Q: What sequence folds into this?
């Protein structure tokens, strides 16, 4: 293509496996996953960080993968919905809970909801407060995820089919 | 043996969906697949005078730029919105004027930004008013409904009624916004056109492509294995599939067209705005004497679609004198189309809000008012109902919700800065069914394969059809496999109008029933290829019924209105439905709750605006058009009655995909009135409107 200045070699660890690619600087993580690696579990709903369908985990934290330039993630560890269960055949407990609760219909927001929920569990355990966390709660202590906390923290993940109550129940099912 | 139907069977495609392996239309990575990006018109009315593609073609990776100047000529489609890149006319802002095809998404996007289109712009007219000079009475409203119906002397009867309500309601344009944008991947192979598309019905897509590209249907395969929602907007083919097929032919490559989210409001249909005038007249006992529902709406310059919002008034209540009218103005706006419960959702919002106002006028409980106006036959047609359990839904909902003992006085319950209230509204949706075919095969290993070109847009079609098949065959559910979502399968109608399960299920039932009888007669081992049976419900499913067939429901809402911020929070939402036999308790509940969630959005957050200066929908993306989020949803309950109706289909089912949205906005609006004493008659009930209403009331 003759425009090598617009591409850089980038190494990402995705679902435990390293991938080194020559990445267009304009390419966002979502398109790298979907187009370069064929991992289409992360969905494109808006491409503008408005819907959450593209949510994946980068170094354990949930992100809108449509908003992150892949080239800026050199050396990062990415987990997508395809990698949540690790090497095992058994699905991640959240995936099982979503199935058991019928927490989806069309399924398009589902990988994002699940990845987001994985992120929520980790954030709460790490003591990250949300808008609805009691301001008197001790700083840095794990936050108890009641229904209001779950709904608030998952509100960046839209579901047009309206599976919200079942999603919240599925998340409650896996709270230790 | 009846064991499967009604059971809460788990979704058959569930594992793929939660595991991220379910493939949607953009996710078929054929070798050499190119990406395309559309260029949208920047004027609301006019002509394209030039398309300068030089800069776009200079973008590395750009393969082609298509416009009306060089795109393949297509046969004229029945749906004018599909005549893309055929002529320089711009009928509305956002109309596609070019398409850039490139090696990558980034190159396609950059290429689209580099196309220079010049226009000869003309003055545009995009703002609907009830007194717009272009308003006319169409021959028909959408769905083949008569535009006007009149019985008796509604004006005279209204004028002499003891109690009267004469009110205007407004519903803004609404956007379907399924989570998966409209997307198609197309490739040509040996003169055949192979398409993956995000559609509610691939059969219609194939018919349209065959006509446009002048191909026999058997040389086209259209599949929709998984579809990320539709809500009506994927009920007809959209420009993405035409563009993908065109671009694939021009470039000789597989091409994916995934429409950017912000394009959808302009090219994927919308619920047209509706301006309602309701006149309800009643005697002292609350019996309606006159019911007049007049609706004014807009359509585009290229396609007449008339949101049939006055139609539910023909079904709901006994009133000897009645008139229902639809009027429409053709403006320089995008073409409206189906959105979940077309006609019914905005129509019942207005009617059920006005009924609440009438109950207030009469000092009567709103449930009692509906009981008094329960008709013996369908008011407009005079046909008997195949089943109608609206009052039972209201009573059961009242019991579950705790309606009895409600203090009817508005604006009297306070909790700090919050005003609290409850509201109720009725819901209805017609029973629709279309002919379908299906095939069933018994295999030597004891399993069965059922095939029909149904589409699972998230309803759980695979699952429920397998249940219907299993019961007709008299075998356990796990022995029935099902294939849907391809034109290679026996033809079947779309997933829309809440008619899919009834239509496909009827054919599946008949095919499996026939196969069961063949098996009963068969002796010895099955032949190598198994034993087949097919069914076609043409002439049966579409036979005229002597009965008026509708599902009914009741919605209850409890709200808290913040007098400081104007925010309305829905604490509880409860629906009770009489929708025939419920075929899968698990997926049915999800559909009802999903409909109610969309209704909550319609009531409180969703609304689009035609910008008068630019002729554009201002709220065109998900940052500006607010669909409900997790935090908006408190408790939502859906219940149903065991309704038996033998005049529907072999399963005894009515459609359930749309009725959930129908009564929800009025129930919430009525609850807001009960909480505040303020009657807001324009959706959505956003904080600015609520605060203004509260201030006006105080003044």
A:
């Amino acid at each position: 293509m003759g425009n090598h200045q617009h591409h850089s070699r980038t190494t990402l660890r995705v679902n435990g496996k390293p991938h080194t690619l020559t990445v267009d600087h304009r390419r966002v993580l979502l398109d790298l996953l979907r187009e370069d690696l064929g991992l289409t579990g992360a969905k494109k709903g808006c491409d503008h960080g408005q819907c959450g369908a593209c949510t994946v985990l980068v170094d354990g934290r949930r992100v809108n993968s449509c908003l992150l330039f892949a080239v800026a993630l050199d050396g990062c560890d990415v987990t997508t919905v395809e990698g949540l269960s690790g090497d095992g055949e058994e699905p991640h407990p959240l995936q099982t809970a979503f199935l058991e609760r019928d927490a989806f219909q069309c399924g398009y927001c589902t990988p994002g909801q699940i990845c987001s929920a994985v992120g929520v569990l980790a954030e709460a355990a790490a003591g990250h407060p949300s808008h609805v966390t009691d301001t008197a709660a001790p700083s840095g202590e794990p936050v108890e995820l009641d229904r209001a906390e779950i709904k608030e923290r998952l509100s960046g993940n839209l579901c047009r089919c309206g599976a919200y109550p079942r999603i919240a129940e599925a998340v409650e099912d896996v709270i230790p | 043996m009846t064991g499967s139907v009604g059971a809460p069977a788990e979704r058959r495609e569930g594992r793929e969906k939660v595991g991220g392996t379910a493939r949607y239309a953009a996710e078929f990575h054929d070798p050499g697949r190119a990406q395309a990006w559309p260029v949208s018109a920047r004027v609301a009315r006019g002509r394209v005078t030039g398309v300068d593609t030089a800069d776009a073609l200079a973008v590395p990776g750009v393969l082609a730029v298509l416009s009306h100047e060089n795109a393949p000529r297509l046969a004229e489609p029945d749906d004018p919105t599909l005549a893309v890149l055929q002529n320089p006319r711009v009928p509305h802002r956002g109309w596609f004027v070019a398409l850039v095809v490139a090696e990558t998404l980034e190159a396609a996007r950059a290429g689209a930004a580099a196309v220079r289109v010049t226009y000869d712009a003309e003055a545009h007219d995009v703002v609907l008013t009830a007194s717009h000079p272009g308003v006319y009475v169409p021959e028909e409203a959408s769905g083949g409904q008569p535009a006007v119906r009149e019985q008796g002397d509604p004006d005279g009867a209204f004028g002499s009624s003891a109690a009267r309500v004469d009110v205007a309601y407004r519903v803004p344009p609404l956007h379907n916004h399924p989570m998966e944008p409209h997307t198609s991947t197309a490739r040509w192979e040996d003169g055949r056109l192979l398409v993956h598309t995000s559609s509610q019905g691939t059969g219609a897509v194939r018919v349209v492509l065959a006509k446009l590209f002048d191909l026999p249907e058997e040389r086209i395969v259209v599949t929709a294995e998984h579809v990320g929602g539709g809500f009506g907007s994927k009920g007809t083919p959209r420009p993405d599939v035409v563009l993908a097929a065109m671009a694939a032919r021009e470039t000789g490559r597989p091409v994916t067209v995934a429409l950017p989210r912000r394009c959808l409001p302009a090219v994927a249909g919308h619920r047209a705005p509706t301006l309602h005038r309701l006149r309800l007249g009643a005697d002292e006992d609350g019996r309606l004497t006159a019911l007049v529902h007049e609706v004014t709406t807009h359509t585009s310059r290229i396609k007449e679609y008339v949101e049939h919002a006055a139609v539910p008034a023909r079904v709901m209540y006994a009133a000897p004198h009645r008139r229902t009218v639809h009027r429409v103005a053709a403006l320089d706006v995008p073409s409206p189309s189906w959105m979940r419960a077309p006609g019914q959702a905005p129509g019942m919002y207005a009617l059920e809000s006005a009924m609440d106002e009438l109950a207030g006028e009469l000092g009567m409980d709103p449930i009692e008012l509906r009981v008094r106006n329960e008709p013996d036959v369908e008011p407009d047609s005079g046909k008997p109902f195949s089943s109608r359990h609206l009052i039972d839904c209201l009573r059961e909902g009242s019991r579950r919700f705790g309606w009895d003992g409600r203090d009817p006085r508005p604006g009297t319950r306070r909790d700090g800065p919050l005003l609290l209230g409850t509201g109720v509204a009725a819901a209805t949706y017609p029973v629709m069914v279309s002919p379908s075919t299906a095939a069933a095969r018994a295999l030597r290993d004891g399993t069965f394969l059922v095939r029909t070109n149904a589409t699972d847009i998230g309803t759980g079609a695979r699952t429920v059809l397998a249940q219907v098949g299993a019961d007709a065959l008299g075998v356990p559910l796990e022995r029935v496999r099902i294939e849907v979502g391809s034109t290679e399968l026996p033809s079947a109608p779309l997933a829309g109008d809440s008619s899919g399960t009834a239509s496909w299920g009827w054919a599946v039932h008949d095919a499996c029933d026939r196969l069961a009888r063949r098996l009963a007669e068969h002796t010895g081992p099955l032949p190598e290829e198994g034993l087949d049976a097919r069914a076609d419900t043409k002439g049966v499913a579409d036979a005229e019924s002597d009965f008026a067939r509708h599902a009914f429901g009741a919605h209850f809402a409890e709200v808290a209105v913040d007098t400081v911020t104007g925010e309305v929070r829905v604490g509880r939402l409860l629906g009770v439905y009489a929708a025939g036999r419920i075929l899968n308790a698990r997926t049915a509940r999800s559909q009802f709750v999903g409909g109610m969630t969309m209704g909550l959005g319609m009531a409180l957050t969703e609304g689009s605006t035609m910008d008068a200066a630019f002729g554009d929908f201002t709220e065109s993306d998900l940052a500006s058009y607010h669909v409900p989020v997790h935090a908006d949803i408190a408790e939502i309950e859906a219940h149903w009655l065991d309704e038996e109706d033998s005049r529907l289909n072999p399963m005894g089912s009515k459609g359930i995909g749309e009725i959930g949205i129908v009564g929800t906005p009025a129930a919430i609006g009525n609850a807001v009135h009960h909480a505040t004493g303020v009657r807001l008659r324009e959706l959505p009930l956003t904080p600015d409107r609520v605060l203004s209403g509260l201030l006006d009331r105080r003044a």
Notes: Chain B has a mean pLDDT of 97. The two ends of chain B are 67 Å apart (CA to CA). Residues 500-521 of chain B form the longest helix (22 residues).
